[in-house]
């Protein structure tokens, strides 16, 4: 992405510092919007990261995004998802899926 080699281990390391030291299930997507590549991380809410307060969840998203942007050096979009949302990606959790078209 933008000339940076993106290894899932970089995301894994950054996320290991969050959520009480537990790594939540996540999957990354690389999209192309016009001429820009975008990394989007879907992070599953689980017991380690769950809160019923919106402020706490917003802070979590901000913290995860900031941590990943500092570690990776690129803009990142973070989306919290409920359990079951990533079911179709269960075999690819912890991986990055390149959804950019080659054409």
Order of helices and strands: HEEHEE
Discrete helix count: 2
In CATH, what is the class? Alpha Beta
What would CATH call the architecture?
2-Layer Sandwich
Describe the structure.
This protein is 27% helix and 25% strand. It is of the alpha/beta class and 103 residues long. It has a single domain, classed as GMP Synthetase, Chain A, domain 3 (2-Layer Sandwich). It has a four-stranded mixed sheet with strand order 3-2-1-4. Strand 2, helix 2 and strand 3 form a beta-alpha-beta unit. Helix 1 crosses helix 2. The longest helix has 19 residues. The chain is globular and about 40 Å long. It starts with 7 loop residues before the first helix and ends in a 5-residue tail after the last strand. The model has no long low-confidence stretch (mean pLDDT 82).
Write the layout of secondary structure elements.
Blueprint: H1 8-16, E1 26-33, E2 36-44, H2 54-72, E3 76-81, E4 96-98
Parallel strand pairs: 1-4, 2-3
Antiparallel strand pairs: 1-2
Helix pairs in contact: 1-2
Short summary of the structure?
The chain is an alpha/beta fold and 103 residues long.
């Amino acid at each position: 992405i933008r000339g940076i080699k993106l290894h899932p281990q970089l995301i894994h390391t950054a996320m290991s510092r969050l959520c009480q030291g537990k790594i939540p299930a996540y999957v990354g997507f690389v999209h192309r919007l016009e001429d820009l590549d975008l990394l989007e991380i879907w992070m599953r809410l689980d017991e380690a990261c769950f809160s019923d307060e919106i402020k706490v969840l917003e802070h979590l998203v901000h913290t995860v995004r900031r941590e990943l942007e500092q570690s990776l050096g690129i803009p990142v979009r973070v989306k919290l998802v409920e359990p079951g949302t990533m079911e179709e990606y269960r075999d690819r959790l912890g991986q990055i899926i390149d959804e950019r078209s080659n054409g």
